[in-house]
């Protein structure tokens, strides 16, 4: 979809929304219910949504009420509400998100720190940060996005920011009381979802209480894409969590153990469409992708302890381990015409006229018999382990009339990625892929990358009257190692090739907040950005200096914010992955030279009316991001999204404009919500000037609706429609070919709470 003529309208809307929100700051608002207390509060930046106004750096937090309005299971749709976040859609369901912050790059979230409950959740955050596992947001109770100097509390990726997801807490209800929720939904494309949790606390005696939570999630879809030969293109996921808690009734001690188990089967592919086929049938899938399937398993073990040593001193410690195993069996490439090598699938789709034999093998038309072994399918079999322990000591004290909240933290972390992959070869016969030769395990890739890292930070929140300064310093020392065995050595008993490297990095930052009035704050900050190279890489670490300044207006539920940011990259780094198009050795890293990324983030929100006083509420919110990201050096690169770069080229997959407007109507027994999201066009590769069709990621305007009607005090009917007007758009050319965004998706069913 192409949206034209919006230049004046978006400017009017941005200015109008900010001015419209400002008078509300002086009104008396109903306080939003605070988030439930958590044992991990010392690990994360925000403990409640209200914290975001006074914390140094740009922070946005979405709480349970925000997430329940649409009950999304796609993290892309949730993060549209946060300015400064960039999303490259891939499968339409959010199974494989690509998230960036302030121009950091989006590939598999590998450029930001992604956490669940304060711990790094990527399968191997240091040695292989690409997130082929991502928490399902249908079970998530809160989202925090930290940008600017606030992000130095997290690592190892601090260039753009950090994303923290909060799982359902053990409900903070009176001892002896049970609370819970259940949701059963069904919709088109054979969509089904069942989600529920129950938990509470009970006295144990001796000044102690014991708590527990059990939660389960089941999701299924038959998929909206259509294989020419027929078959399932959807997914099935089971995800369950158990938490056990122990706390003292005086509140000084809290201990919590969490176990989470995830199992996914998804029939997803990297194979997209040619532009001509996309125009004719955007949800089509060629027969060459019929065997593509991801099988993934993930487990999290987390033990958290909080000890209030005194009223002003507390110690929070978290020990964790995650185990992830995934095998994505998918089409990798096609035999070249000379039968001497292989042609990447993205090269075939980019220029089908120059690759007629390869295109015919991919399509697999009725009655067609392809070349023997022309289709190479790779078993991308990988096992990951991440484990570590982190402690944060927080102390509040005063020096004269100045208040301090000092944080000292240490974390030891280990992770590794084990690649043990092989290629199988197939022939296309009358639309069906027939195995012609099976590869031996480990014959394509046989290596382990691992990392050991110490991370420390110190941060002091200094309050002197109306001025708050938050200086901080993060230090990381990282040992990286890559061990390769011969692809003819599946037992790994022979000689190895080992590459080692070490990185030591200091990451300083400081933010300032000046409360001009009760509802007006001027904010500014600067910090050093850092992204760690991977095991075996010969490039230097990516570093940058990142600046921000702006206004925060409001208090509690009434707020508006405008932040300008500038990220000055000394050296951008790109990593070769199959998800970026391949055509290079997977894992190789490339230097992208100097890059400047500047932009403006705006958000505003207020609620008109009050159910208690007026019988209705009208919540409205707004988020907008402008971005200008350009290369400042010229170079030729083998990295697919860059190619040959000239000074002034814009970075790929970074739209100049993004905007989301939410509006709702809440009555005593019914709620209606709508959201409109506009994303400007973007480039698939670096360049400048008009965007040619073969490089253009479509702009689009999408509208989602949701409604809920109470049948009983604790039982309601809920329904939602995503992409209400069934807009068709090309969401990406990565990994290979044009890829559609999700069409109209509807879900409806029953919710119950107790």
Could you characterize what this model shows?
The protein is mainly β and 754 residues long. 6% of the residues lie in helices and 55% in strands. The strands form 7 sheets. The chain has a 22-stranded antiparallel beta barrel. A hairpin with a 2-residue loop joins strand 9 and strand 10.
Based on CA atoms alone, the radius of gyration comes out at 26 Å
Structural class comes to: mainly beta
Question: Could you report the average pLDDT, rounded to the nearest whole number?
Answer: 90
- Globally, the shape reads globular
> Mind summarizing the main beta sheet?
22 strands, antiparallel, barrel
Number of helices: 7
Poorly predicted spans: 1-36
Extended strand count: 39
The CA-CA distance between the termini, in Å, is 43 Å
Helix content: under 10%
Beta-strand portion reads: over 45%
Summary tags:
754 residues; 22-stranded antiparallel barrel; globular; disordered N terminus
Topology overview:
Elements: H1 7-21, E1 58-62, H2 64-68, H3 75-79, E2 85-87, E3 99-101, E4 113-116, E5 119-120, E6 140-147, E7 161-167, E8 178-187, E9 191-205, E10 208-221, E11 226-227, E12 235-248, E13 253-266, H4 275-280, E14 284-285, E15 293-310, E16 313-335, E17 342-344, H5 345-350, H6 356-363, E18 375-399, E19 402-429, E20 432-437, E21 445-464, E22 467-485, E23 496-517, E24 520-531, E25 542-555, E26 558-575, E27 589-608, H7 611-614, E28 616-631, E29 635-636, E30 644-645, E31 657-667, E32 670-679, E33 682-683, E34 696-697, E35 700-712, E36 715-722, E37 730-732, E38 739-740, E39 745-753
Parallel strand pairs: 4-7, 11-14
Antiparallel strand pairs: 1-6, 2-3, 4-5, 6-7, 8-9, 8-39, 9-10, 10-12, 12-13, 13-15, 15-16, 16-17, 16-18, 18-19, 19-20, 19-21, 21-22, 22-23, 23-24, 24-25, 25-26, 26-27, 27-28, 28-31, 29-30, 31-32, 32-35, 33-34, 35-36, 36-39, 37-38
